[in-house]
């Protein structure tokens, strides 16, 4: 590949996040995350069960249902949310396995928009930017509002095309 056709940095790091996501054994969603400071890759992580514990492919998902009061178009309604509690999210693993000093002023590239819990953790982690590709509509509005309140740049890579070998069917 010639110099003029080299990938831009967002594409390069998001490609890495998608490759990392292929390590996940989750049947519902493969998520990968990378920590970057400047142009230096500092860490990678994916969603899965704690080390040494059977994952969803071995023991099945542990689905719980939550209900959340949501206001849309001036109307309040209860929305049912399902989530697997067997797995640690990619963003959480990234924070567990990187140092605070490395996170200060850094960017997190993550395949999927962070959920509310991960967004809260990222907001207190020292990072200054989150870049993601796939939206997570269940928490999107409140996460984007909180990121703006914290002054964390929050970007969706809309025109990005993940490497074909990393794609899976997403189950919500």
Label this structure with key terms.
172 residues; alpha/beta; Cytidine Deaminase, domain 2; five-stranded mixed sheet; 27% helix; dCMP_deaminase
Overall number of strands: 7
Strands of the widest sheet, in order across it, are: 2-1-5-6-7
CATH architecture of the domain at 9-48 and 87-166: 3-Layer(aba) Sandwich
Span between termini: 37 Å
Using the coordinates above, name the CATH class of the domain at 9-48 and 87-166.
Alpha Beta
Helix and strand run: HEEHEEHHEHEHE
Largest sheet: 5 strands, mixed
| Poorly predicted ranges | none
Under CATH, the homologous superfamily of the domain at 9-48 and 87-166 reads: Cytidine Deaminase, domain 2
The name CATH uses for the topology of the domain at 9-48 and 87-166 is Cytidine Deaminase, domain 2
Number of helices: 6
How much of the sequence lies in strands comes to: 25-35%
Shape: globular
Radius of gyration: 16 Å
User: Structural class, please?
Assistant: alpha/beta
Helical content band: 25-40%
Mean pLDDT: 91
Structure description:
This is Zinc-binding CMP/dCMP deaminase protein. Its cofactor is Zn(2+). One of its GO terms (molecular function) is dCMP deaminase activity. Zn(2+) binds at residues 89, 115, 118. It comes from Paenibacillus algicola. The protein is α/β, with parallel strands linked by helices and 172 residues long. The chain has a domain at 9-48 and 87-166: Cytidine Deaminase, domain 2, CATH 3.40.140.10. Helix content is 27%, strand content 28%. It has 6 helices and 7 strands, in the order H-E-E-H-E-E-H-H-E-H-E-H-E. The chain has helices at 9-21, 56-59, 90-96, 100-103, 116-123, 140-150; strands at 32-37, 40-46, 63-72, 75-84, 107-112, 129-134, 153-156. The strands form 2 sheets. The chain has a 5-stranded mixed sheet, sandwiched between helices. A two-stranded antiparallel ribbon has the order 3-4. A hairpin with a 2-residue loop joins strand 1 (32-37) and strand 2. Helix 5 packs parallel to helix 6. The N and C termini lie far apart (37 Å). The mean pLDDT is 91.
